[in-house]
Amino acid sequence: MKKLFIRILVLECFLFINLYTITFANTPLKVSFIPISEFSIGGISFQSTLQDVINIYGKPTSITPYENSSYTSSGPYMMSQNFITYNYNNKFIIEAYNDGLSWDPKDLFVYSVTIKDANNLSTPSGFHVGQSFSSVTNIYGYTAKLKKSTNRNNNYSYYCYKYYEATLIFAVDYNNIIREISIWGVTC
What we know:
The chain is α+β, with helices and mostly antiparallel strands. It has helices at 2-24, 50-57, 134-140, and strands at 40-41, 44-45, 62-71, 78-88, 92-98, 109-115, 145-148, 157-163, 166-172, 178-184. The strands form two sheets. Strands 3-4-5-6-10-9-8-7 form an eight-stranded antiparallel beta sheet, with no helix packed on it. A two-stranded antiparallel sheet has the order 1-2. The longest helix has 23 residues, at 2-24. The radius of gyration is 23 Å and the shape is globular. The N and C termini lie far apart (57 Å).
């Protein structure tokens, strides 16, 4: 009886290990952080100013300014921030801000960079639009899917990698091809 019990126990352990391997072996791992050095696209990072962008890429095809003014919670003092978007043919988009003191490009700091075209722009690790997303997971592992797009024009899944308050987001199509890469100065 004791031998039968041990055999059943060994068989159950063997079955459990096989079931666990089949069920969880391909489950994506959640990766929280990647190096801050990855938060740059085409040489533009969060430390860059719009003057740096102009020096490298020239003037954009369109500029969209936006001023946001609001009252502070500590009293009737007005707080103002200037936001601006530099758009290079809807393929390379840079957003910047400052504390509302100036619209001068040297005073506006980048908080977002997005590439939407298979051009020569890439991250420091060489990730670029048109590349297989598996190249990212080979280096940084899997991360949680941020969301699946509901837009009919694209059917992308968005994957978010973090470094504290910064995010690196890959928009990936149903063929596992990277279609957009963005860095943001806020978490996802």
